[in-house]
Design brief:
Blueprint: E1 4-11, H1 18-27, E2 32-36, H2 45-55, E3 58-63, H3 77-87, E4 92-97, H4 107-118, E5 122-126, H5 132-146, E6 153-154, H6 158-164, H7 168-176, H8 192-197, E7 208-219, E8 222-233, H9 234-242, H10 250-272, E9 276-284, H11 286-298, E10 302-306, E11 315-318, H12 320-334
Parallel strand pairs: 1-2, 1-3, 3-4, 4-5
Antiparallel strand pairs: 1-6, 7-8, 7-9, 10-11
Helix pairs in contact: 2-3, 9-10
Length: 335
Amino acid sequence: MPHRRYHIHVICADNDQLLVLDSVAIFFQARAFLTYDVSSKLPKASLYGRQCIDSCDYALMIIGDSYGTVQKTGVSQMHLSYLNAKAKLKPLLILVKNHYQEAGISRQLQELVKLVSKQDNQIYYYDTEDDIEALLVQAYYNAIASHKVTGGWMRATEEMIKFSNQTVAERFADLLSKNKSMNTKKESSVDEDFGADNVSKPIMLTETFDIQYSAQAYEGGNLKDVTRSITLSWQEILAALVKIPSTFSSYGLQNAINRLIAPKAEIDIKSDMPNVHAVSRCQISQDDLNHLQRQLVSANWIQLTTYGTRLSQELWKLTFYAKNLLENENSQTSE
Protein backbone atom coordinates (compact mmCIF):
# COMPACT_ATOMS: atom_id res chain seq x y z
CA MET A 1 0.00 0.00 0.00
CA PRO A 2 1.50 3.39 -0.97
CA HIS A 3 2.51 5.58 1.97
CA ARG A 4 1.78 8.81 0.10
CA ARG A 5 -1.11 10.21 -1.86
CA TYR A 6 0.02 11.75 -5.13
CA HIS A 7 -1.28 14.30 -7.61
CA ILE A 8 -2.10 12.57 -10.89
CA HIS A 9 -3.06 14.55 -13.98
CA VAL A 10 -5.35 12.68 -16.37
CA ILE A 11 -4.61 13.34 -20.04
CA CYS A 12 -7.74 12.67 -22.07
CA ALA A 13 -9.92 13.83 -24.94
CA ASP A 14 -12.91 16.01 -24.16
CA ASN A 15 -16.27 14.21 -24.06
CA ASP A 16 -14.79 10.75 -24.62
CA GLN A 17 -14.62 7.56 -22.55
CA LEU A 18 -16.80 9.02 -19.80
CA LEU A 19 -17.39 5.66 -18.11
CA VAL A 20 -13.65 5.01 -18.15
CA LEU A 21 -13.03 8.39 -16.52
CA ASP A 22 -15.65 7.55 -13.89
CA SER A 23 -13.86 4.26 -13.19
CA VAL A 24 -10.58 6.15 -12.84
CA ALA A 25 -12.16 8.60 -10.38
CA ILE A 26 -13.55 5.75 -8.26
CA PHE A 27 -10.26 3.85 -8.25
CA PHE A 28 -8.22 6.86 -7.18
CA GLN A 29 -10.77 8.27 -4.72
CA ALA A 30 -8.64 7.35 -1.72
CA ARG A 31 -5.32 6.94 -3.50
CA ALA A 32 -4.59 10.21 -5.35
CA PHE A 33 -5.67 13.74 -6.12
CA LEU A 34 -6.80 13.98 -9.76
CA THR A 35 -6.90 16.81 -12.27
CA TYR A 36 -8.11 16.41 -15.84
CA ASP A 37 -7.53 17.98 -19.24
CA VAL A 38 -10.37 20.34 -20.13
CA SER A 39 -12.00 21.05 -23.48
CA SER A 40 -9.81 22.63 -26.15
CA LYS A 41 -12.72 24.99 -26.81
CA LEU A 42 -11.84 26.86 -23.62
CA PRO A 43 -9.29 29.64 -24.20
CA LYS A 44 -7.26 28.70 -21.12
CA ALA A 45 -7.25 24.94 -21.68
CA SER A 46 -3.59 24.81 -22.70
CA LEU A 47 -2.44 26.95 -19.78
CA TYR A 48 -4.42 24.89 -17.31
CA GLY A 49 -3.12 21.60 -18.70
CA ARG A 50 0.47 22.85 -18.64
CA GLN A 51 0.17 24.06 -15.03
CA CYS A 52 -1.36 20.76 -13.90
CA ILE A 53 1.40 18.76 -15.58
CA ASP A 54 4.07 21.01 -14.09
CA SER A 55 2.77 20.33 -10.58
CA CYS A 56 1.68 16.68 -10.86
CA ASP A 57 3.63 13.68 -9.60
CA TYR A 58 2.39 11.27 -12.27
CA ALA A 59 0.42 11.59 -15.51
CA LEU A 60 -2.22 9.11 -16.68
CA MET A 61 -3.12 9.16 -20.37
CA ILE A 62 -6.33 7.59 -21.69
CA ILE A 63 -6.60 7.12 -25.45
CA GLY A 64 -10.10 6.02 -26.42
CA ASP A 65 -12.26 6.64 -29.47
CA SER A 66 -11.63 10.36 -29.97
CA TYR A 67 -8.59 12.50 -30.74
CA GLY A 68 -10.31 15.46 -29.09
CA THR A 69 -11.13 18.95 -30.30
CA VAL A 70 -8.37 20.31 -32.51
CA GLN A 71 -6.87 23.63 -31.44
CA LYS A 72 -5.61 26.43 -33.68
CA THR A 73 -2.19 24.81 -33.45
CA GLY A 74 -3.59 21.76 -35.25
CA VAL A 75 -3.42 19.37 -32.31
CA SER A 76 -5.82 18.47 -29.52
CA GLN A 77 -5.35 19.20 -25.85
CA MET A 78 -4.77 15.48 -25.23
CA HIS A 79 -1.93 15.44 -27.76
CA LEU A 80 -0.46 18.66 -26.37
CA SER A 81 -0.60 17.41 -22.78
CA TYR A 82 1.16 14.20 -23.79
CA LEU A 83 3.99 16.21 -25.35
CA ASN A 84 4.22 18.39 -22.23
CA ALA A 85 4.35 15.37 -19.94
CA LYS A 86 7.15 13.82 -22.01
CA ALA A 87 9.06 17.10 -22.08
CA LYS A 88 8.75 17.41 -18.30
CA LEU A 89 9.89 13.79 -17.88
CA LYS A 90 6.79 12.97 -15.84
CA PRO A 91 6.22 9.29 -14.99
CA LEU A 92 3.50 8.36 -17.49
CA LEU A 93 0.85 5.63 -17.38
CA ILE A 94 -0.95 5.08 -20.69
CA LEU A 95 -4.22 3.21 -21.26
CA VAL A 96 -5.09 2.60 -24.93
CA LYS A 97 -8.38 1.22 -26.17
CA ASN A 98 -8.07 -1.63 -28.64
CA HIS A 99 -9.38 -0.72 -32.09
CA TYR A 100 -9.59 -3.84 -34.15
CA GLN A 101 -10.72 -1.88 -37.19
CA GLU A 102 -8.80 1.36 -37.55
CA ALA A 103 -11.27 2.60 -40.15
CA GLY A 104 -13.57 3.57 -37.29
CA ILE A 105 -11.17 6.13 -35.81
CA SER A 106 -9.71 9.36 -37.16
CA ARG A 107 -6.36 9.59 -38.91
CA GLN A 108 -5.10 11.95 -36.18
CA LEU A 109 -5.95 9.42 -33.48
CA GLN A 110 -4.24 6.65 -35.44
CA GLU A 111 -1.10 8.78 -35.72
CA LEU A 112 -1.14 9.59 -32.01
CA VAL A 113 -1.42 5.91 -31.09
CA LYS A 114 1.51 5.11 -33.39
CA LEU A 115 3.57 7.92 -31.83
CA VAL A 116 2.85 6.76 -28.29
CA SER A 117 3.58 3.13 -29.22
CA LYS A 118 6.95 3.95 -30.78
CA GLN A 119 8.24 5.96 -27.82
CA ASP A 120 9.48 4.59 -24.52
CA ASN A 121 6.14 4.20 -22.75
CA GLN A 122 4.49 1.61 -20.56
CA ILE A 123 1.17 0.96 -22.33
CA TYR A 124 -1.85 -0.98 -21.06
CA TYR A 125 -4.57 -1.98 -23.52
CA TYR A 126 -8.27 -2.35 -22.76
CA ASP A 127 -11.45 -3.32 -24.62
CA THR A 128 -14.19 -1.84 -22.41
CA GLU A 129 -14.53 0.12 -19.17
CA ASP A 130 -14.90 -3.21 -17.35
CA ASP A 131 -11.16 -3.80 -17.87
CA ILE A 132 -10.06 -0.52 -16.31
CA GLU A 133 -9.90 -1.36 -12.62
CA ALA A 134 -7.65 -4.38 -13.07
CA LEU A 135 -5.38 -2.43 -15.40
CA LEU A 136 -5.15 0.49 -13.00
CA VAL A 137 -4.12 -1.77 -10.13
CA GLN A 138 -1.27 -3.10 -12.24
CA ALA A 139 -0.29 0.20 -13.84
CA TYR A 140 -0.45 2.37 -10.71
CA TYR A 141 1.50 0.13 -8.39
CA ASN A 142 4.10 -0.61 -11.07
CA ALA A 143 4.50 3.12 -11.64
CA ILE A 144 5.04 4.08 -8.00
CA ALA A 145 7.47 1.18 -7.60
CA SER A 146 9.45 2.08 -10.74
CA HIS A 147 9.28 5.87 -10.50
CA LYS A 148 9.66 7.06 -6.94
CA VAL A 149 8.91 10.76 -6.53
CA THR A 150 9.51 13.03 -3.56
CA GLY A 151 6.15 14.80 -3.72
CA GLY A 152 2.76 13.73 -2.50
CA TRP A 153 0.94 13.90 0.80
CA MET A 154 1.61 11.53 3.67
CA ARG A 155 -0.92 8.79 4.39
CA ALA A 156 -3.35 9.43 7.16
CA THR A 157 -2.63 8.62 10.76
CA GLU A 158 -5.36 7.08 12.91
CA GLU A 159 -6.21 10.53 14.25
CA MET A 160 -6.67 11.86 10.71
CA ILE A 161 -8.88 8.92 9.78
CA LYS A 162 -11.06 9.56 12.82
CA PHE A 163 -11.27 13.22 11.84
CA SER A 164 -12.42 12.38 8.29
CA ASN A 165 -15.32 10.33 9.66
CA GLN A 166 -16.68 13.06 11.93
CA THR A 167 -19.44 15.56 11.31
CA VAL A 168 -18.50 19.24 11.05
CA ALA A 169 -19.83 19.89 14.56
CA GLU A 170 -17.74 17.06 15.97
CA ARG A 171 -14.65 18.36 14.20
CA PHE A 172 -15.14 21.78 15.74
CA ALA A 173 -15.55 20.24 19.18
CA ASP A 174 -12.32 18.25 18.84
CA LEU A 175 -10.30 21.09 17.35
CA LEU A 176 -11.34 23.61 19.97
CA SER A 177 -11.36 21.43 23.05
CA LYS A 178 -8.25 21.78 25.18
CA ASN A 179 -8.91 18.52 26.96
CA LYS A 180 -9.69 16.24 24.04
CA SER A 181 -10.08 12.64 25.13
CA MET A 182 -8.09 10.13 23.13
CA ASN A 183 -9.77 7.12 24.74
CA THR A 184 -13.09 7.22 22.88
CA LYS A 185 -13.30 5.69 19.46
CA LYS A 186 -16.00 6.82 17.06
CA GLU A 187 -17.91 4.09 15.21
CA SER A 188 -17.66 4.40 11.46
CA SER A 189 -19.29 2.75 8.49
CA VAL A 190 -16.54 3.89 6.13
CA ASP A 191 -14.66 1.08 4.46
CA GLU A 192 -11.27 0.43 6.12
CA ASP A 193 -9.39 0.44 2.82
CA PHE A 194 -10.70 3.92 2.10
CA GLY A 195 -9.72 5.14 5.55
CA ALA A 196 -6.21 3.79 5.21
CA ASP A 197 -5.49 6.10 2.31
CA ASN A 198 -7.46 9.15 3.44
CA VAL A 199 -5.14 12.08 4.03
CA SER A 200 -7.47 14.89 5.04
CA LYS A 201 -5.27 16.48 7.67
CA PRO A 202 -6.80 18.72 10.33
CA ILE A 203 -4.79 21.73 11.43
CA MET A 204 -4.69 22.48 15.14
CA LEU A 205 -4.73 26.24 15.66
CA THR A 206 -2.27 26.04 18.53
CA GLU A 207 0.33 24.13 16.51
CA THR A 208 3.44 25.99 15.37
CA PHE A 209 5.79 25.55 12.44
CA ASP A 210 8.96 27.18 11.08
CA ILE A 211 9.39 29.01 7.80
CA GLN A 212 12.38 30.58 6.07
CA TYR A 213 12.35 34.26 5.19
CA SER A 214 14.71 36.83 3.72
CA ALA A 215 15.05 40.48 4.71
CA GLN A 216 17.27 43.53 4.32
CA ALA A 217 18.94 44.96 7.42
CA TYR A 218 20.44 48.46 7.55
CA GLU A 219 23.49 48.71 9.81
CA GLY A 220 25.82 51.71 9.92
CA GLY A 221 24.71 52.89 6.51
CA ASN A 222 25.28 49.49 4.95
CA LEU A 223 22.62 47.15 3.58
CA LYS A 224 22.84 43.46 4.46
CA ASP A 225 20.74 40.61 3.07
CA VAL A 226 19.80 38.14 5.77
CA THR A 227 18.03 34.79 5.68
CA ARG A 228 16.53 33.34 8.81
CA SER A 229 13.77 31.09 10.11
CA ILE A 230 10.80 32.16 12.19
CA THR A 231 8.10 30.33 14.12
CA LEU A 232 4.42 30.92 13.37
CA SER A 233 1.22 29.41 14.69
CA TRP A 234 -1.72 28.33 12.56
CA GLN A 235 -3.92 30.68 14.56
CA GLU A 236 -1.74 33.59 13.41
CA ILE A 237 -2.01 32.38 9.82
CA LEU A 238 -5.80 32.16 10.03
CA ALA A 239 -6.06 35.62 11.59
CA ALA A 240 -3.93 37.01 8.75
CA LEU A 241 -6.09 35.29 6.13
CA VAL A 242 -9.26 36.80 7.55
CA LYS A 243 -7.82 40.29 6.99
CA ILE A 244 -7.35 39.68 3.26
CA PRO A 245 -10.17 40.83 0.91
CA SER A 246 -12.88 38.29 0.07
CA THR A 247 -10.90 37.01 -2.92
CA PHE A 248 -7.13 37.14 -3.28
CA SER A 249 -4.35 35.97 -5.56
CA SER A 250 -1.31 33.91 -4.58
CA TYR A 251 0.57 37.21 -4.58
CA GLY A 252 -2.00 38.59 -2.12
CA LEU A 253 -1.45 35.56 0.10
CA GLN A 254 2.29 36.17 -0.02
CA ASN A 255 1.85 39.81 0.98
CA ALA A 256 -0.36 38.83 3.90
CA ILE A 257 2.26 36.41 5.22
CA ASN A 258 5.02 38.97 4.69
CA ARG A 259 3.07 41.53 6.75
CA LEU A 260 2.60 38.92 9.45
CA ILE A 261 6.29 38.07 9.76
CA ALA A 262 7.70 41.61 9.36
CA PRO A 263 7.39 42.75 13.02
CA LYS A 264 8.60 39.37 14.28
CA ALA A 265 11.54 39.45 11.88
CA GLU A 266 12.58 42.94 12.98
CA ILE A 267 12.68 41.90 16.65
CA ASP A 268 14.54 38.70 15.78
CA ILE A 269 17.17 40.40 13.61
CA LYS A 270 17.77 43.32 15.98
CA SER A 271 18.22 40.96 18.92
CA ASP A 272 21.13 39.25 17.09
CA MET A 273 22.38 42.39 15.34
CA PRO A 274 22.02 45.23 17.87
CA ASN A 275 23.53 47.83 15.52
CA VAL A 276 20.76 47.34 12.95
CA HIS A 277 18.54 50.42 12.88
CA ALA A 278 16.01 49.30 10.26
CA VAL A 279 14.68 46.10 8.69
CA SER A 280 12.75 45.96 5.41
CA ARG A 281 11.58 43.70 2.57
CA CYS A 282 10.71 40.71 4.76
CA GLN A 283 9.63 37.91 2.44
CA ILE A 284 8.68 34.29 3.02
CA SER A 285 10.70 31.89 0.88
CA GLN A 286 8.92 30.76 -2.27
CA ASP A 287 9.25 27.06 -1.37
CA ASP A 288 7.69 27.63 2.05
CA LEU A 289 4.93 29.76 0.53
CA ASN A 290 4.07 27.01 -1.96
CA HIS A 291 4.09 24.40 0.80
CA LEU A 292 1.93 26.60 3.02
CA GLN A 293 -0.58 27.15 0.21
CA ARG A 294 -0.84 23.39 -0.41
CA GLN A 295 -1.45 22.80 3.29
CA LEU A 296 -4.18 25.45 3.36
CA VAL A 297 -5.91 23.79 0.42
CA SER A 298 -5.53 20.30 1.90
CA ALA A 299 -6.99 21.48 5.22
CA ASN A 300 -9.95 23.12 3.43
CA TRP A 301 -9.01 26.61 4.63
CA ILE A 302 -8.83 28.18 1.16
CA GLN A 303 -10.33 27.23 -2.18
CA LEU A 304 -9.70 28.29 -5.77
CA THR A 305 -12.52 30.37 -7.26
CA THR A 306 -11.23 31.12 -10.77
CA TYR A 307 -8.27 30.52 -13.06
CA GLY A 308 -6.41 33.35 -14.78
CA THR A 309 -4.03 33.56 -17.70
CA ARG A 310 -1.20 33.92 -15.18
CA LEU A 311 -0.69 32.40 -11.75
CA SER A 312 -1.08 35.84 -10.18
CA GLN A 313 -4.60 36.05 -11.64
CA GLU A 314 -5.84 32.86 -10.01
CA LEU A 315 -8.19 33.93 -7.25
CA TRP A 316 -8.66 32.20 -3.91
CA LYS A 317 -11.04 32.71 -1.04
CA LEU A 318 -11.30 31.70 2.59
CA THR A 319 -13.70 28.79 3.10
CA PHE A 320 -16.73 28.88 5.37
CA TYR A 321 -15.06 26.13 7.38
CA ALA A 322 -11.98 28.28 8.10
CA LYS A 323 -14.08 31.32 9.04
CA ASN A 324 -16.03 29.24 11.53
CA LEU A 325 -12.83 27.89 13.04
CA LEU A 326 -11.70 31.41 13.92
CA GLU A 327 -15.13 32.52 15.12
CA ASN A 328 -15.39 29.50 17.41
CA GLU A 329 -11.87 30.06 18.70
CA ASN A 330 -12.61 33.73 19.43
CA SER A 331 -15.85 32.89 21.25
CA GLN A 332 -14.08 30.18 23.24
CA THR A 333 -11.38 32.65 24.28
CA SER A 334 -13.86 35.34 25.34
CA GLU A 335 -15.78 33.01 27.63
